[in-house]
Structures are given as structure tokens and as C-alpha cells.
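Re: weekly structure request thread

Next one in the queue (470 aa):
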Amino acid sequence: MRKIAIIGAGSIVFCKTLMLDIMATPGLEDTHFSLMAPSHRRTPYVEAFAKRVIAQNNLPSQVSATTDRREALDGADYVISAFQVGGLEAFEQDYQIPMDYGVDQCIGDTLGPGGIFRALRSIPVTLDMAADMEELCPNALLLNYVNPMAMVCWALGETDVQFVGLCHGVQTTMDLIAGYVGIPKDDIDYTCAGINHMGWFLELTHQGNDLYPLLRDRFEHPEYYVNEKVRGEVLRHFGYFMTESTGHLSEYIPWFRKNSKALGMYCDEPGFGGETGAYLNWSKHVADKFGTQDILADEPTELPPRSVEYGSYIIEALETGRTFKFNGNIRNNGMITNLPYDCCAEGPVFADKTGLHPTIVGDLPSQCAALNLTNINVQRLAVEAAINGDTEKIVQACALDPLTSAVLTLKETRDMVSDMLQAEAQWLPQFAGQKVRPTPTISIPSGTKPAAVPVDPALAILARFGELGK
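Done, posted below.
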């Protein structure tokens, strides 16, 4: 019986979805699910629900719950990570402190100050888990669902663990594209590549015909443009459609959330369409509504159709040999040739009985690579900060963040990071006892004259050329 360890099984709805997907897959019915979370606050509900499903459907599957990560990982064939370090309490600090400084986030889990600090909390735990995997289940495949996907997977690329990061941005965006062009999704051929939450649909064809002229034309009409103003603007100016919605995408680029005018023009859709603090507000709503009650108590126990999540299809391919193509997040290693070799890139991957096989995409269009690089630069510094416990790298990551840099001065950025580091100290042990180095404001008295300094040799040469030209 294969063993699948789910680390972060307190994520009730997501854990339930993945387990049902796997139990509904022919050939995967005989699976032992080992559910792990730091406490038994929620996992008993998931365990009880899974046992009801197993009994009703007469499955050979098994399920157990533990608070010991090493117990869950011991002998696992697959590991699914879906945890959130610090929970809602930390997430609220990710949002509220930047907002106090004027950095307006919608989702706050991928880039921006919120995404950076989520990475600082998540990467050390991920690397500890990876070290346990190298000891207890060295041949297991890790399916990572922890955000920020690109930063977490970048750190995993420094380990010996086999991993792939999974997101549903590509398949859900394809549903939208299919609706926009009026062609069933399964009839559209596409290639999508870039980085997580900023993947580009490089090709969209139907029966060999390019669908981009039609898609671009659609976004010149108000009834289409109003659905996705930010993604529509990026399409109009950069030429390609992207995997993330207005709310997400508006945080990764500097043009749409930097002031009230921009927010009013482009991020006026409620909820995840761009609303300030939309994801935090939704998370609070769920917490207030369900609290500690068993939200799975009345859930039906018949096996539903499999969801759009990739996890069960990848495991099916590896176990049965049924080939599956998906977009995965992996160490780039030349898959996308004009992005850094060591970054986490998202692109087409094939899974079969022999493993995972990335495809070579080649160069992205230069403008698409350039926009990806604005995020990759931040990711690199944040990963270095998380691994090395370097507070200056946090400041530098936030300073290079496209949204933060559109709103704050360097001094304000440093002060914001200092406040966040202090507020989240309990979840950031790698920075224990450290503070952000202060840089006091320099007061310049009126009438201050510049200090006499040696002349720059380059300027002296230019001056000499000026003399020769007379």
C-alpha cells in the first residue's frame, strides 16, 4: 500500500479535495493517508470524514492522523505540503502593517511585503521537512502547494528532495480563455510558461489557427475588458495573456495599486477582483463562520468527479504509467533559457511511470522575461534572507518589490520591514535577536553648502574634451 503524507492537513477543505481526488482515481484506491498538523485541532475532522468515505465506498484505503512530522514522513511514497506558518494571525500582520505605510495588497501571499514575509516563515519549515524526507523517505516525491510557490520551490531546489510545485492558475485561466474565444477548453492547444502566478500563454491555437487575434480583439471591447482590467491592460501592452487575475496580478507590477486613482480605475471589482485586503477578509469570514466546528460533518461521502488540482493525476501517471501533461514549478535548469538557471520557473512537464520530464521552452518574448525578472529579483533576495537570517536582504527584497517601490521611499521601506519583523518575531526564529539596522533621517540646515570633494576623474576628462572642442 502506498503511503501519502499530507503535511498541513489542518487545511480542511483543500486536504479533503486532494484525498477525494486520489480515492476516486482508478489504481490509487489502496492508499494510506498520513495526516499531519502541529495540533489535533482540525485533523480529527478530516480523518473522520475520510473514514466515512472509505466505508461508504468500500475502499481499501486507510487514514491516520499525527502531530509528529517524522512519523508521517517515515516510509512515505509521496508527500503533499499545504501548511501556513503563523495562520491567520501572521497573515493579518502581513497585510495590516504594509497598509499602515500605504502599500495596498489584495491577496498578499505571493510577492509584496506579505509574500516576502510568508516566505520568511515558510522556507525554514520547508527545509526542515526536506531534511526529514532525505532521511526518512529519500525516494518520495514532494508535491508542494505552499505559497509563495516560487520562493518555497526556489529554496527546495537547493536540497536533494524530488519536488514539483503545483498551482491551478493555468487550468482555471484556460476556462476563462475558452469562454472569451467561444471554444471548448479541451479543443484549445496551448503552451504556457514563465513563473508561478506570472505564466504567459505563449501559444493559443484551435485546429492550427492562432486564437490570439480574436482574444486581443475581445479585450478592446468593454464587456470583456471590464472582467479583467489589469490582465487586459497587460495583454494590450505586453502582447500576451497571463495566468493571474486582476487581484493577484495587480500586486506584482507597479502600475495598478500605487495610488487611489489607479485603484479606482483598475481594481474596482469586489472580492478577489482587486479589492483591498480581499483574501484576508475572506479568511477572517471563514474563521468566524466555522471556528473550531466540524465543517465536514454534513459533507456527502460519495466520491465526486476529480477536481482540477494536478496532484492525483501526477500520482496516477507515476503509479500506472498513464502519461499526464501539466504546468509545474521546478528549478529552471535551462527550461526557460532567458530566465536565471537557479530560479523557480513554471512550464510544461510530462509525468509517466519513469518520473517527471520538463520540456525545454526556450526564450520567452523579451518583454515577458523582463516582467518576470522584476519578480525573480525579489524572490532571490527573499530566499537568501530566509535561509541566511539576513535582515538587510529583507529590506532589499521589499525595496525592489514593484508595488512597494512604487509607493514608499527607501527609508519608509526599512521602517515597514522593521515593524513587520518585530510583529512576526515568534514565527521567524532565524532572525532571533536581530533588528533591522536603522537609518535616521539626515537633517539639512538651511544654507548648507556641499562639501569640497575631489573632482571625479571621468568628469575631468569630459571637461578636457570640452576645452579641446573650443
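Residues 112-136 form the longest helix (25 residues). The two ends are 88 Å apart (CA to CA).
Next request, please.
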